[in-house]
Amino acid sequence: MKKCLLNIVMGSLIFLGGCSKEGNFEFFEGGSLDIDNPGAFLVINYWAKWCAPCREEIPELNALQDEYRNQVIIAGVNFDQPIDTVLHEEKKVLGVLFPTFKIDPRIYLKLPPVTVLPETLILNSDGELLHRLIGPQTKESIAALISEKLTYEKVQPTFREAG
């Protein structure tokens, strides 16, 4: 009996060791991102194939990703959560160039459900929610919010001890 219990405990530890930590979310395309510490601004966009404003917004998000590649991570969440093959085809048809989360991080971020599409969340490099934007956005509207924070962070004085 003790040996059986020990095997169960050891098996559980091995299984848990293979699980990603709580804030780590995987992409359909492979790889993952730690939402608690993305290391850059994180823009999470909720979209669906049937949503006309979402389709209009996708090129704007692609352009934002291209221009701010070193400062911003763009990630999507497909509102309908289709199976992988359907999602791949939808992304191809719509020209979505940014990765898409497998699981919606919204519950982890303690946010209410999406009620209007598109919706865009902006988190800072520490994973703190800065903005929740409802409705279609442009590259410029999102860039303005991010640039405002980048400028603020750049002008903060840095003190070093004389050495």
UniProtKB/TrEMBL annotation:
GO terms under biological process: cytochrome complex assembly
UniProt superkingdom: Bacteria
Keyword Disulfide bond: yes
MF GO annotations: disulfide oxidoreductase activity
The keyword Disulfide bond appears for this protein: yes
Localization (cell): Cell envelope
Database matches in Gene3D superfamilies: Glutaredoxin
InterPro entries, sorted: Thioredoxin-like_sf, Thioredoxin_CS, Thioredoxin_domain, Thioredoxin_ResA/DsbE_sf
Location (main, coarse): other
GO cellular component, one term: cell envelope
Keywords: Cytochrome c-type biogenesis, Disulfide bond, Redox-active center
Thioredoxin domain ranges (all copies): 14-151
Protein name, per record: TlpA family protein disulfide reductase
Annotated organism of origin: SAR92 clade bacterium
